[in-house]
Amino acid sequence: MEWQKICAANEFEGENRKMFEVNGHKILVSRIEGKLYSIDGLCSHMGGDLSKGRTENNKVICPKHHAVFNLETGHVEKNINGFFKAMTRKDAKDLNAYEIRENNGNIEINI
Ligand code: FES
Predict the structure, then answer these.
(1) Which of 44, 86, 87 has its CA nearest to residue 69?
(2) What is the pTM of this model?
(3) What is the tally of structural domains in the chain?
């Protein structure tokens, strides 16, 4: 793991969610009430783009089948419902969460 710059802090002002690619991984970076979060950017169920999901407090809701992930831990807070589970025969699993910081005018993640 090492700290890597993903963008200048001023490129991320006023936005609360954006997808970045780091070392070939899609990473969702969110800024909510001034606090930064970073987790895997693709849903563990069927790859939904979490940057297009709705956020509620420190959670993001997958736009495809509505699994809910905690932005701080990456943990599944609410799994897909029984209908989608029966249709797809799989659940959402916990995502990886990464340390993130603002440092010398840049946003960096530890990955
Ligand atoms: S792809 Fe995210 S809940 Fe199905």
Answers:
(1) 44
(2) 0.94
(3) 1
